[in-house]
Amino acid sequence: MGKFMESVDSKALRFVAGFPVVVAAAFVVCAFLLRPDLPEPLAVRWTDDGGASFAPFGAYVSVGAVMIVAAGWLVLYQAVPINRPVLMRRIMMGSGLFVTLFVTTVLAAGLLGQTGLADARGSRVDTTVLALGSGAAVSLGVVMSFVFKADEQWSPDDDRALQLAIVREADPDLARDNIRLWVHARSSVFVMIAIASLFPSALIAIVVPWLGGLLVVAALVGAAFLCARVKADRAGLKVLLAGLVPVMNVPAGAISEATAADVKAADYGGWGYRHHDGTAAMLVSSGPAVVVSKTDGQRLAVSGGSPASAARLAEVLTRVAARARRTGGPSEAPGPPES
Hints:
By secondary structure, this protein is an alpha+beta fold. The protein has helices at residues 2-6, 10-34, 57-76, 86-112, 127-147, 156-170, 187-207, 209-224, 307-327; strands at 42-47, 50-55, 179-184, 227-233, 236-241, 245-251, 255-263, 272-276, 279-283, 287-294, 299-303. A hairpin with a 3-residue loop joins strand 5 (236-241) and strand 6. The chain is elongated.
């Protein structure tokens, strides 16, 4: 229950739970006030000749009240979770108010169209009530969308952010010991991959559709191998292929030296992830990179993006490695939130 309450807007939840019930109760009260002037049974479906299907007064009112509550809850609840976009929550709050009032309007128009009649077979839906009620429902729904203040409430993410702020306040150097960056091949390489795959696959798909699709998938996989997410903090170095597949994970204590260098991908086996003779590399192109020497004698190279980012990555790895050697292990302080 505690986790549920943390994930919803409590004020909006109270409104969502109560508003349809209040409207349904008001409909029931008004129906009973009209009861002496209504025929028995009541029409629930109409044709050009009048009422065609009928139901007892109690069934009409009770089922109608349930419809009001169910429709209101179903739509209004979409505005309650705080992890949804503010614009979406505002739209759903206005839509829920409209749906609740519109269902009530339709039921009320059916009742008022039968007042004063001895037989519901000669009844009609009161179009004046239907038109006025529908217009009011739309107007109030739009107003609610604008006035509903869908502010995000305090959540577990805020707790984590507060904890991180406290840690950073106690350790000002923590932010300097963290770096996150994406590295990828030049845009011209991706254009070449697209040209070399999309045009042939379009021709092949005319004859063998699945083979054309397979060629496109292969091109996407190849392009993914030319993108990587590089993370360096006091725990060490992590490299994720395409931002998802971990290919390198080097603890800070296992790093003996890190230097920025201008490398040729051919010297390390080519583009993408390579591992040969104790040397691992994740290079998306030739150019700025960081060469890391490990305490066990192995080496690895990681693309650094620009010369400035490569120099900063090497500086962070050198600093966290020295810190790990002094303290005997990586720091327990958390890194910054993922972006």
